[in-house]
């Protein structure tokens, strides 16, 4: 199984001039562009564990604590 990378989805967000990348368990990644959500073309449906593995290294200690407690965190 190929390792997942968040980078292509961030590139898609950037290219489309989007404001948010949303990762939700049992769903494909989505981008918000001009207030509207759309799927990232070609991206797989992600499990909660995959989202954790992708996001955890990007979070600081406070964000990791929030994510661990609430299973949700907003960050830039």
Defining key terms:
about 80 residues; about 35% helix; alpha+beta; 3 strands; single chain
Question: What does the model show?
Answer:
This protein is α+β, with helices and mostly antiparallel strands. It is built from three helices and three strands, in the order H-E-E-E-H-H. It has a three-stranded antiparallel beta sheet, with helices on one face. The N and C termini lie far apart (29 Å). The model has no long low-confidence stretch (mean pLDDT 92).
Compact overview of the structure:
The protein is built from three helices and three strands. By secondary structure, the protein is α+β, with helices and mostly antiparallel strands.
């Amino acid at each position: 199984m190929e390792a997942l990378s968040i980078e292509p989805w961030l590139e898609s967000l950037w290219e489309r001039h989007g404001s948010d990348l949303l990762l939700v368990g049992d769903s494909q990644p989505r981008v918000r562009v001009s207030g509207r959500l759309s799927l990232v073309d070609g991206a797989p449906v992600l499990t909660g564990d995959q989202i954790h593995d992708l996001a955890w290294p990007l979070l600081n200690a406070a964000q990791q604590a929030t994510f661990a407690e609430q299973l949700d965190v907003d960050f830039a």
